[in-house]
Specification:
Layout (H helix, E strand, L loop, with lengths): L8 E10 L5 E9 L3 E5 L10 E6 L2 E12 L2 E6 L5 H10 L4 E2 L2
Length: 101
């Protein structure tokens, strides 16, 4: 069993990421916490350790670092945790509001 320091929420929302001043790539965000999220990266342009900015819906840019990649799923950690009201807003706008396992 994996222990986490925060609750994670299953959401369904669109977003984008960008490395530096490069091209923006559309993503589908499926899992979110105040400290990070994961998303499907169909173009495969990031590597573990990359610094990226991410937008979740209309929120962002959020400075983040790629922590893991597995089968085109990417996990990122935000440089600064999301403010609780911002997290609540994203969850409310993200369709499902279920705690992730």
């Amino acid at each position: 069993m994996e222990l986490r320091r925060e609750e994670r929420y299953s959401i369904t929302t669109n977003g984008r990421y960008r490395k530096g001043t490069g091209v923006r790539f559309d993503i589908a965000i499926r899992n979110l916490s105040e400290y990070g999220c994961n998303f499907a990266d169909l173009v495969g342009r990031v590597e573990v350790g990359d610094e990226i900015t991410i937008r979740i819906g209309q929120i962002g840019p959020i400075e983040s670092q790629v922590r893991w990649i597995e089968k085109r799923q990417v996990g990122v950690q935000f440089d600064q945790p999301l403010h609780p009201s911002v997290l609540d807003h994203i969850i409310a706008a993200g369709g499902r509001n279920e705690k992730a396992a």
